[in-house]
């Protein structure tokens, strides 16, 4: 009988090797693990509750004899079978893993856009597909999928390893197109993404357009939708003029004022067209204008009363008290509002007042910009106008106490220390 070294398992419990194959990030990694006689790697403990818990273990290369009972070590025969002990806890020697570094799996092909710049690919670009293996480029092109769906024709290249993909329609500006190459068996063999270039746009501003109660220590920011913006500071104008410096942070151009902004003032920021993208012919095609109003000084101010004219220019017939419509947004609604009426001396003064009113920032809460000056106009009528409800949507009317002579009038509503509400009233026979 051939002798064996002490501790060597018998042939019925000979050591086997189980292979674990992992596919991770497109790289095939193989690890060989020495296994115990019952098919478990050293230091691994599988549940023994039933067959379902043992299917993960590798099957033995040959089944053991039907009467064999696995034991921890050879012992004299016993009258009863002894169950196999649980796998021991892993030790430093048993649980030692060795990293395997394999070269990355090369894609089966290369796909490049034939017309592109710093902003992306052109709308009319073609794509060149070059095979990197034994398959021809035409064979690979038959397995190209796109998202979103793109119809294209396959044109012969300079050799069998190259073809050109020509889209049937121009690419949509700013859209991202994804190409996916699979093998005949469905395995991923390459993927690419291209973004069609588009004109530059402003996507956000700080403060927002027509924001009110903006703190006077605010900065001003303009954020674009693409990287590589260059020379943007040369295209920004701030009114009223404000000293400060510009800083570029990725896609955002920031203006840092050297001092606080003026209180209860409407600021207008203009970003003129022509802002460029480095290495591209794409630019900002249209001017972008946004406005905001700074808050009053002192403690936080309450919003002025929400009472507004329904229209900026009103009409009434002579000989009867005017009735004008207003919109009330406050809840609860006030019962009355102060009304002052000024007569304009000439038609030219009325035309000038109309232009001022029509271009005024009606969204502003405290600023006086765009208001018609009443300093040189004596008041014709002043009264507390009762707000009579006419619907459930905030509609109200104010009835004048007396009729007015024919002419042009400026009607002013007081709004609790905030910005006045102004409208032009024409009293004429044709009203």
List the helices and strands and how they pair.
Blueprint: E1 17-24, E2 27-34, E3 109-113, E4 116-117, E5 120-121, E6 127-131, H1 137-141, E7 144-147, E8 152-156, E9 162-167, E10 176-182, E11 188-195, E12 202-206, E13 211-214, E14 220-224, E15 229-230, E16 236-239, E17 244-249, E18 252-257, E19 266-271, E20 276-277, E21 288-294, E22 307-309, E23 313-316, E24 323-328, E25 336-343, H2 347-359, E26 379-386, E27 388-389, E28 395-399, E29 407-413, E30 421-427
Parallel strand pairs: 13-21, 23-30
Antiparallel strand pairs: 1-2, 3-6, 4-5, 6-9, 7-10, 8-9, 10-11, 12-14, 14-18, 15-20, 16-19, 17-18, 19-21, 22-24, 24-28, 25-26, 25-29, 27-28, 29-30
Largest sheet: 5 strands, mixed
Write down the overall geometry: elongated
Mean model confidence by pLDDT: 82
Strand arrangement within the widest β-sheet reads 23-30-29-25-26
- List segments where confidence is low: pLDDT < 50 over at least 5 consecutive residues: 1-87
Tell me the radius of gyration. 41 Å
Distance between the termini: 128 Å
Q: How many strand units?
A: 30
Helix content: under 10%
> Count of DSSP helices?
2
Binned strand content: 35-45%
Secondary-structure content class: mainly beta
């Amino acid at each position: 009988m051939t002798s064996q070294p002490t501790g060597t398992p018998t042939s019925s419990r000979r050591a086997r090797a189980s292979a674990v194959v992992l596919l991770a990030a497109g790289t095939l990694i193989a690890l060989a693990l020495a296994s115990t006689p019952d098919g478990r790697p050293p230091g691994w403990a599988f549940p023994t509750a039933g067959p379902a818990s043992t299917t993960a273990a590798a099957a033995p290369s040959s089944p053991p004899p039907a009467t064999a009972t696995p034991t921890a070590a050879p012992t004299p025969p016993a009258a009863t079978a002894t169950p196999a002990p649980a796998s021991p806890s892993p030790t430093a020697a048993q649980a030692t893993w060795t990293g395997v570094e394999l070269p990355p799996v090369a894609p089966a092909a290369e796909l490049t856009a034939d017309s592109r710049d710093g902003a992306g690919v052109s709308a009319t670009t073609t794509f060149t597909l070059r095979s990197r293996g034994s398959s021809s480029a035409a064979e690979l092109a038959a397995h190209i999928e796109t998202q979103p769906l793109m119809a294209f024709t396959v044109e012969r290249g300079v050799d069998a390893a190259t073809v050109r993909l020509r889209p049937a329609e121009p690419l949509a500006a700013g859209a991202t197109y994804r190409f996916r190459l699979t093998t005949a068996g469905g395995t991923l063999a390459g993927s690419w993404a291209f973004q069609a270039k588009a004109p530059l746009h402003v996507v956000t501003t700080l403060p927002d357009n027509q924001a009110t109660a903006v703190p006077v220590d605010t900065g001003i920011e303009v954020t674009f939708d693409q990287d590589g913006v260059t020379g943007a500071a040369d295209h920004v104008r701030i009114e009223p003029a404000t000293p400060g410096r510009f800083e570029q942070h990725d896609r955002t151009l920031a203006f840092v004022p050297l001092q606080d902004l003026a209180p209860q003032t409407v600021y207008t920021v203009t970003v003129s067209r022509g802002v460029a993208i480095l290495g591209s012919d794409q630019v900002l095609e249209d001017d972008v204008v946004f406005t905001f109003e700074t808050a009053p000084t002192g403690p936080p101010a309450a919003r002025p009363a929400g009472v507004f004219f329904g229209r900026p220019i009103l009409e009434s017939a002579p000989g009867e008290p005017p009735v004008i419509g207003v919109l009330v947004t406050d809840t609860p609604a006030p019962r009355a509002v102060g009304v002052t009426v000024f007569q304009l001396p000439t038609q030219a003064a009325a035309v000038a007042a109309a232009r001022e009113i029509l271009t005024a920032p009606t969204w502003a809460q405290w600023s006086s910009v765009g208001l018609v000056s009443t300093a040189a106009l004596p008041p014709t009528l002043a009264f507390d106008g009762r707000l009579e409800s006419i619907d459930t949507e905030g509609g109200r009317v104010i009835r004048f106490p007396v009729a007015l002579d024919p002419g042009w009038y400026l009607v002013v509503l007081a709004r609790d220390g905030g910005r006045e509400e102004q409208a032009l009233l024409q009293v004429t026979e044709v009203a």
